[in-house]
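Why do we bother with holo predictions? Because pocket geometry can differ from the apo form. Keep that in mind while you read this record for zinc ion.
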Amino acid sequence: MTSNTTAGTRPASAASVDILRDLVSFDTTSRNSNIPLIAWVEDYLANRGVRSTRVYDPTGTKANLWATIGPADQAGYVLSGHTDTVPVDGQDWASDPFRLVEHDGRLYGRGTTDMKGFLAVALAKVPDMLQAPLKRPIHLCFSHDEEIGCIGVRYALERIGDLAPVAPVAAFIGEPTSMQVIVAHKGKHNYRVVVTGKPVHSSLAPAGVNAIDYAAELILKIRDINRRFAEGPRDEAFDIPVSTAHTGVITGGTVLNIVPETCEFAFEFRMLPGISHQTFEDEVRSFARDVLEPRMKAIDPATGIVIELVNGTPGFDTDLGSAVIPMAKALAGRNDHAKVAYGTEAGLFVHMAGVPSIVVGPGSIEQAHRPDEFIEMAELGRCERFIDRLIERCC
Ligand SMILES: [Zn+2]
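The structure, written out:
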């Protein structure tokens, strides 16, 4: 298919589109190894004389890739993005999700907006970076397993001192923000709860311990916390200006005439930056331990409630006086900023590496994770301008 853009000229460079085509062709759903894609990027960089470093996860089947262009002994800027994508399972796509399709100024394919489009532009700009007389380096940090809890980048950030001997000035995380400058996001902590009851025939219900009933009481406790969150504190700069608590999945029981032995559910906290989830996690735990379990164990000591923290990603909130904000706005060519409720690797760059971070990237979050995911070519073009200006700044 051909592009049909109103301006008559292609808003994105052929290089960005060609690289995106290659990146999309790798099925880097988080459950798969991302090594084939990483090897492709390594080759691309090596062919242009850029050395890169793999940072493996403990299984050795996945890796982050770090590369530095320009003088490594100076403080520079990080362009960071994840290589993994969400699955296409159960989604109804009009075309093959792993083949880039261009139509009406849009590029369709899994990961086009979240976030291989950003990776493609960053790579397409490498020749320009190499030609420019950079006085500060530009680092590329391509991670894995972001979609399942910002797992991968932690391994790279543990080694940031080796990868970037001089601490970077700032990191730009290229998640799809339609090139809006995001200066804060919430923290996110998610939990799995297993309630173990005592099964008996339902006609003998008082002799059993109903796992679903106790799970329900705990879920109402979480709902009560959410109600208190709604009363404040607030930060009106966020799309959702309060912290939130939410239960998202529940399973339990087998048949109606058996008191259910197990009930499992998952819940999350999304906290405004600066507000600890710990107080509320403790509240849930102590309600389970001090109120619910004594009643359960009075009937059968083998019953109980296990609460497991599955994943925690810190929030971040860049100081509005920080020089990185006006700089990001100048690079993006716009004057506004926002705060968002979804988590990114920015919180980890801030908390693990002490690197001030901004989330800014091409494409809209509206298209992320959806069937027929696409990115506007014009968005890639805007991201190209962003990196052009960054290169100028580094000279
Ligand atoms: Zn993403």
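Residues 223 and 342 are 20 Å apart (CA to CA).
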